[in-house]
Write a structure and sequence with these properties.
Elements: H1 6-19, H2 23-30, H3 34-50, E1 70-74, E2 77-81, H4 87-98
Helix pairs in contact: 1-3
Length: 99
């Protein structure tokens, strides 16, 4: 078994990521133990994730609304109006349906 440095393992992991091959295929092709490859890949991934910081997000509950359409029943017809439709326009449509 060949002993590799951390930098050699890092280069192998980077090479695998661009190879388009499965880890098993890549390891066979490069004479690498898939077990050790997986161990090193996970180690590098953990290091990478540890270096990333989470940014706290504060949600303003007032800014969250579910937009429900206005529903009107007129002569057996159900009309659904979007929130952005003006009251004047809604009135015109209801009048037209009432005829």
């Amino acid at each position: 078994m060949k002993t590799r440095t951390q930098e050699q393992w890092r280069k192998l992991v980077e090479l695998h990521e661009t190879s388009g091959k499965t880890a098993v295929e890549f390891c066979k092709e490069h004479g690498v133990s898939s077990k050790y490859f997986s161990v090193w890949k996970n180690r590098f991934l953990k290091e990478e994730l540890a270096g990333q910081a989470f940014v706290p997000v504060k949600v303003n509950k007032q800014s969250i609304r579910t937009v429900e359409p206005l529903i009107v029943h007129c002569k057996g017809i159900e009309l659904k109006f979007p929130e952005e439709l003006s009251a004047e326009r809604i009135g015109q449509i209801i009048k037209a349906c009432a005829i």
